[in-house]
Amino acid sequence: MPAECSPPEKTFWVYVSLWIANFFSPLLYSGVTTILPSIAHDFHTSAATISLIVMLFAYSQGFIGSIGGRMSDLFGLRKMMTIGFIICFLTLIGLFISTNFTTLIIFRCIQGIGTALLISSSTAIAINITPIYKRGSILGILTSAAYLGASLGPIIGGAIATFFGWRFLFILLMIPSLAGLILFRGALRLEWCTLDEEKFDTKGAIMLGLGTGAISLGAGLFSMYFPLLYLVPIGFILLIIFVYMQKHTRYPIINIDLFTKSGKFSLGIISIMVNFGAATSFVYYSTMYFQQVRGFTPLMAGFFLLFKSMAQFGVTPYAGKLSDKIHPEYIVIFGIILCTVSLIGTAYLNETSSIYYIYTTLFLSGIGLAIFSAPSTVSALQDIPSKEIAVASSLTATSRSMGILTSQIIVSLAISHYLGEKTVNPETIPLFLNSMKTSFLSMSAINILCLIGYIILAIKIHHSDTITQKQK
């Protein structure tokens, strides 16, 4: 049975623990992304191989996040979030003591499971304990926490890699992991378990895992062994079978009707995937660009990225609050426009781009994503029935993880095509810049399609409002 909200005097600390979870997960991503060149140097790995650290993390995060909403409904939101914190803490220890690249990516893959549980559970818990008229504001605050984590990750990772060595980043990250766990367990003592008499679709979960895994591995490793590229179409076939299974099973992992009956939800999921995925690939490419192309230290690269992320952190809460007052779709349109312009601008960076040009693209990216994020989530969840809100809210959070996975597939394909097994060095810089250009222009094209969808939706909303006003 569903539990009640925790006592009012402890609700604040529940929000604090949710804030830490949203802060911690992107910190794990952006901080580790910043130290990739240092890891590549120590383990003597190519650009394509080192991207596996991000790819496998994104795969496990996306896969587990997709089934996380269903797992939380069956086994409890509190339990899933607790497990997420514990997995993250233990894998940080494993990453610190890893002695070879294989061990490192195994722990990183497992860590993605922990962050997936944190992301999907925290959003669902926030929705459950927050009144409808405050959800935009709360989601804005939690999203700003994610951007603060993304902001500090490059600085912290860069500073530690520069002065102490990349391994010590994992020791430092144990602090928010442990603090979040202790606060959460102490503040929220009751449990949500809304579907405790239903069954978990194991076959569907396996099919989803095989499908996303085949696409991820095929795209990420085909430069090492070209026939692996055939895994990509096989993965898409498996996902089509997964969708068919979900429509014909009594207890689906993902209710496909959520997508078919609510155009706003489907559009929201797709746009969140595209823009958050583009933002994370932005961090990956920018890190490599600043360090490998421009010759900056990891710390200097982190300060450049801080400019973008602090813009996100400062604006996001206000965009969330505004979405409680006006139709969020209007705000989303403006955010997508800025994101698209920044992607196109970044695609044309070269070895001699001015610092002012770089700062402009970073600023537009940060402001655009800040304006877009919370309103897009509010819009996606507006038409969802209350009994489906936990799964739907976890899917909106998981769409960020799937966005990371999708963007990394695009990045891996581009890097593998242009660089293959070559490392990024003065001779291969033009090839690296071509891969960056291809990736960002591809994401821009998809974003333009999302923009068209939101413009059509906004026109329909405006037309409906006009009719309503006339009837009054």
Distance between the termini: 42 Å
Give the count of structural domains: 2
Q: According to CATH, what is the class of the largest domain?
A: Mainly Alpha
Number of strands: 0
Q: Largest sheet at a glance?
A: none
Structure characterization notes:
With 472 residues, the protein is mainly α. The protein has two domains: 10-189 and 253-471, Up-down Bundle (Growth Hormone, Chain: A); 201-252. Helices cover 80% and strands 0% of the residues. It contains 18 helices and no strands. The chain has helices at 8-34, 36-43, 47-50, 52-75, 77-97, 101-129, 135-163, 168-172, 174-187, 202-221, 231-247, 257-261, 263-293, 298-322, 328-347, 355-381, 389-418, 429-471. It is globular and about 70 Å long.
Structure summary:
By secondary structure, this protein is mainly alpha-helical. Helices cover 80% and strands 0% of the residues. The protein contains 18 helices and no strands.
Topology:
Layout: H1 8-34, H2 36-43, H3 47-50, H4 52-75, H5 77-97, H6 101-129, H7 135-163, H8 168-172, H9 174-187, H10 202-221, H11 231-247, H12 257-261, H13 263-293, H14 298-322, H15 328-347, H16 355-381, H17 389-418, H18 429-471
Helix pairs in contact: 1-6, 1-7, 1-9, 1-13, 4-5, 4-6, 4-10, 4-17, 5-6, 5-9, 6-17, 7-14, 7-16, 10-11, 10-17, 13-14, 13-16, 13-17, 13-18, 14-16, 15-16, 15-18, 17-18
List keywords for this structure.
472 residues, 2 domains, 0% strand, globular
